[in-house]
Amino acid sequence: MTRRMITLIENGGMGKCSFSFNNLLLRSPLRYTMMERRFLYKLAEAIKIRYEKMGLQVRGNWDSLVFNMTDKDLAMVGGNTNVVRTYKTIRLLAQKSIIQYHQNTEKQMVVDYFHWIDAFRWNTSTNDYTVRVSPELYEYVINLTKSFTVLNLHTAILLESKYSQKFYEICSLYSGEFRFIDPSTPNEVYKKRVIKMSIEAFRFTFGLSELHDPRTGEVIEKEKYQRFKTMMEKVVFTAQKELFTLYEIHKCDVWFDYEVADRYGRGRNGSPKSLRFYIYSRECPKSKDTELDRPWQKGGVPLWPYEDKPKKAIPAKKKVKQTDWLTFDTDYQRDIISQLLNAIFDADEAAYYLEKIDNEQQRSVDTYSQVIQVLYEKQRQPKFAQGTRRYKQKCLREFVFAINLKEYGWSIEPYQP
């Protein structure tokens, strides 16, 4: 028996029902179930429509943004047989907070806790529901002047796993002209739409790592899928299969391939250190040949993340300016720095420098990009690139962090065990 797919708008076409999220919201840890996220997709789209209809150009008017719903509306989200389940989902959403980290105008780090749903009411006589949206969402759903991603509601509502939903968001986020820059390989240029994430960053983004309250240390979310093999099977492979299946039947416009990018130690038996994801879309498919436009399989042509190098000599490229690094979000800037430090230093020394850099970042928002710039310049030097690990440690301790950073008005004292 063919399973009927649930859509919010029957007979609706692809591309006609979109909504937007701030990129910071997309990169925040995954803390919602599949049903919760499905409802939030619908709510975000409804907020956009209502906001435009009411002409609410002032944030203060947001306080009156209230939605009335019936069981029919709940059925559109979860299906006719899951109305009670959807009701429970909305009720629980009113209790679940969003956690966001940002800097205020004084460059101080602030942790925000707020809710999507400010209030939820059920009229027992009419069996109607009322949802009032939190005004804090203004910056994340409506005031999208920069750094936002457009998602398709028809696709988002079909996904049956919260990890597939998160991968859909990530694929949509990086399906454009994004090009990853890896300071650990300064002589290689990544192809567009290829991203590299450390295992730690991946686990944080997908809500798999243990999440603590930054003030009390209280565990907010427990760790999930500690074994790498289990994580790949339950999270990555399942999401890839679902997205690609929808892509094949033209219900989704993006999907991804993946591979282990780096390992600890030597050889192929070391524990995985980072993952690499290849984002494909209708506009930029993996291949124009339909037989090749599919997930990589063992024995197939290996995935290759870098642009092919030109055969003829070309003039030296212009020096990358520090402002180029500013186009990256701070989470990814920090992850790049962390990967490089841990590749050169022992864990304690890497943690020392990362802590100093984090402290300076709270004072100046350009800190991460400044550090990436000086590391990038050092790695382009042939003597450094060919040097031993001990030589690289000495260069970073005594020159890069102690001297080169002074160009930006600050520096880091060498690590003392």
Can you characterise this structure?
The structure is a single chain. With 417 residues, the chain is of the alpha+beta class. 38% of the residues lie in helices and 17% in strands. The protein has 15 helices and 12 strands. It has helices at 23-27, 34-54, 71-78, 83-93, 138-142, 153-156, 162-173, 199-205, 228-248, 322-325, 330-344, 347-363, 367-379, 382-386, 389-400, and strands spanning 18-22, 66-69, 97-103, 109-115, 117-123, 128-133, 148-152, 194-198, 211-212, 219-221, 254-263, 272-281. The strands form 5 sheets. Strands 2-6-5 form a 3-stranded antiparallel β-sheet. Strands 8-12-11 form a 3-stranded antiparallel β-sheet. The chain is globular, with a radius of gyration of 23 Å. The relative contact order is 0.10.
Explain the layout of strands and helices.
Elements: E1 18-22, H1 23-27, H2 34-54, E2 66-69, H3 71-78, H4 83-93, E3 97-103, E4 109-115, E5 117-123, E6 128-133, H5 138-142, E7 148-152, H6 153-156, H7 162-173, E8 194-198, H8 199-205, E9 211-212, E10 219-221, H9 228-248, E11 254-263, E12 272-281, H10 322-325, H11 330-344, H12 347-363, H13 367-379, H14 382-386, H15 389-400
Antiparallel strand pairs: 1-7, 2-6, 3-4, 5-6, 8-12, 9-10, 11-12
